[in-house]
Amino acid sequence: MDRKKFLHPPDFARARQIQEELLSQLKLQPLENKPSFIAAADATFSGEKVLAAVLLFAFPELKLLETQVVCQPISFPYRPGYLSFREGPAILTGLSKLSHQPDLVLLDGQGIAHPKKMGLATFVGIISGLPSVGCAKSHLVGRYQEPEREKGCLSPIELKGEIVGYCFRSRTGVKPIFISPGHLINLEDSLRIIQDCLRTYRLPEPLRQAHQVTTRLRQSPWLS
What we know:
By secondary structure, the protein is an alpha+beta fold. It has one domain (about 5-140, about 180-224): archaeoglobus fulgidus dsm 4304 fold, CATH 3.30.2170.10. The chain has helices spanning about 5, 10-25, 85-95, 120-130, 185-195, 205-220; strands at about 35-45, 50-60, 65-75, 105, 130-135, 155-160, 160-170, 175-185. The N and C termini lie far apart (about 35 Å). About 45% of the residues are buried.
């Protein structure tokens, strides 16, 4: 796949076309093999720059093996539904810098639980060709019922009559997280992967550590 033609659209019209082109390649299916290595990616912004962290872990023990960080100019303006074009290029650069290709990628964002079914996890998954799962801190689209307060409770997220993800209580009495498949994985396996990545915090451990790295990046003096 020629990644370059998907990463830096000149305007929103071309960005919409890219979303449609990528959507035609979306595959939701059971995970073919249990992953041995997973990557977790998080991105943030500082001024006119996007900062991304991509961490590689052994799975299921979640031993951190490698960390790659990327700082790039923001190449696309902000508009709801198009965040992938702001964060995606830096994350894909970070993935390409890993010394070992992961079997699956976790992303701090949506998968198909998106107005165009093209959240960050779907965007990155299709372009990279890797199975991907979105795990977001907040709800974007679709209807759901608040799950019970106990850890492990969940409710489906429905969009236009289709289940596109789960609202999941990862810790008792804390805000839920929002899980949706990105690419080359289905709903059930996406949920199972996130459950296997939970430790003592609300967020899956790989994404929690990736978020810690981007937080430190924003505070780094070399960005000023």
